[in-house]
Amino acid sequence: MPTGTALRDPRQQLFEAAERLLLRAGPNALTSRAVTAEAGVAKGVLHRYFPDFDAFLAELVRGRIRALDALGTALNESAGTGTVTDNLTAALVDLFDPVATSVVGLVIARDELRARLRATGSTGIPLMGEAAAVLSAYLTREQTLGRITPDADADVLAPTLLGAAHLLFADRESGTPDRETVRRSVTAVVAGASA
Fold first, then answer.
1. Looking at CB atoms within 10 Å, which of 5, 62, 166, 183 has the fewest?
2. Alpha carbon 15 to chain centroid distance?
3. Is 0.70 surpassed by the pTM of this model?
4. Is 176 exposed, middle or buried (0-12, 13-18, 19+ CB in 10 A)?
5. Which domains does the chain have, with CATH numbers?
6. 3-state helix, strand, coil in the chain (%, to 5)
7. What is the DSSP secondary structure assignment for residue 151, as one 8-state letter?
């Protein structure tokens, strides 16, 4: 890149490039060289903002984790309206967009990335652990409203829902499952807990 050319928010440019690579080629395609080439910047730009590539990836994942706040707020606001199954289906479809699904694969594949995220408070599989907390909070709210049985264990139902949904979304070759497929899975998981 020629010197003297101003970059528009270089960090965001790098994150967007990483997301495009994730969508196009999956987690294994992410290297610092691939990201900077995709962003159209010199390799040194990434290292100007991040000490190393895993620090960059950790911040990419943390951005996805922060986005869960909006999902959690919307899901909790839906408590008591519609059906529990429809609310959970919509949340899981939103959660497992193609980039998030690839980010989960990235986190699973990179030990150093997982370690960095756990050092800052993530547990289990980072991003999935935070998503489970969002679903558990919603299920607990529905429990207080009498739409989930009092003896249902929200902390077990939430990761069960996530695992079932992740299996549906993770197959890059088959494409994104349709909403009805996700809804059937949600129905099966919460059937015994619905009041």
1. 5
2. 15
3. yes
4. middle
5. 1-49 (1.10.10.60), 54-193 (1.10.357.10)
6. 70, 0, 25
7. T
One digit per residue, pLDDT tens: the chain, 195 residues? Answer: 445 555 578 999 999 999 999 999 989 999 999 999 999 999 899 999 999 999 999 999 999 999 999 999 999 999 999 999 999 999 999 999 999 999 999 999 999 999 999 999 998 999 999 999 999 999 999 999 999 999 999 999 999 999 999 999 998 777 889 999 999 999 999 999 988
Number of residues that make up the chain:
195
Q: How far is CA 11 from CA 21, 39, 56, 130, 141, in A?
A: 15, 10, 9, 24, 37
CA Rg value for the chain: 19
CB 88 within 8 A of CB 135: yes
CA gap 152, 99 in Å, rounded: 32
Q: How far is CA 93 from CA 2, 45, 88, 119, 166, in A?
A: 42, 34, 9, 29, 10
User: Is the CB of residue 186 less than 8 Å from the CB of residue 142?
Assistant: no
Q: Which residues pair with 148 in a beta bridge?
A: 194
User: Look-up: residue for tokens 């609310």?
Assistant: 87
Contact 22, 102 (CB under 8 A): yes
CA 73 to chain centre: 15
In contact, 185 and 164? CB cutoff 8 Å: yes
